[in-house]
Design brief:
- This protein has about 130 residues and is of the alpha+beta class.
- It has one domain.
- It contains 6 helices and 6 strands, in the order H-H-E-E-H-H-E-E-H-E-H-E.
- The protein has helices at about 1-10, 25-30, 45-55, 60-65, 85-95, 110-120, and strands at about 35, 40-45, 70-75, 80-85, 105-110, 125-130.
- The strands form 3 sheets. Strands 1-2 form a two-stranded antiparallel ribbon.
- The chain is globular.
- The protein starts with a helix and ends with a strand.
Length: about 130
Amino acid sequence: MEEVIYREISGLNRHLPASRPTLAELMDSEKPSVRLRDGSEHFFKRSELEYLSSLLEEEGVRSLRLPIVIEISTLYRGYFRVRGRYEVKVIDRILGEGLEDRDEALYPRYLLPRIRRLLPTTTTYAFITE
């Protein structure tokens, strides 16, 4: 049964990127995009890239990987998780948080619309079973 669930979740995650370029790489690109696991191409809005760049210092622009993956987990019902130092920093700044540097953070799921409204092309969902 677990194998069936794993295959179904994997199918749900075909929209995830095959690789995640940095914000700096995408800013330098004429047509900022990424290839997805299903073979299609996802394009980023330049205005979102510029907004993200305004939230970070130079090191963050060189290190932030896009799209930011918002993990929806079976373990943390009512919450979503973001991993990565600069990915968390971006979400914290959007939400007006950011008390300390951290590599992973849980946020209440009701905040998702706020994030997705600001960053529709630079965030994506991943469905995780734990």
